[in-house]
Amino acid sequence: MKIKTQRTRLRCWQDADRAAFAAMNTDPEVMRDFGGPISRQQSDAKLDRYAAAFHRLGVGRWVVESVEGRFPATQG
User: Fold this and answer.
1) Any idea what DSSP says for residue 10?
2) Range of the domain at 9
3) Helix, strand or coil for residue 42?
4) How is residue 47 annotated by DSSP?
5) What CA–CA distances, in Å, run from 24 to 10, 16, 59?
6) What does pLDDT average to over the chain?
7) Residue 74: is its pLDDT beyond 70?
8) Which of 3, 8, 61, 64 has the fewest C-beta atoms lying within 10 Å of its C-beta?
């Protein structure tokens, strides 16, 4: 499922998102309000939980990317 606006898309998680997601999760500033950075293994497990929630419930956390396909959407 996708939702698209003029500047961003919301979509379900994919295996291709793992590296970018892990990079976000190791950034101290990004993770400051979430208890601090997490490891790649923890990040992969979190992505698995997000994807499973979508599969099981049809709802969950979205990937927010630019309409050009950059994730995270704020990436230059």
Assistant:
1) E
2) 2-66
3) helix
4) H
5) 17, 14, 22
6) 88
7) no
8) 3
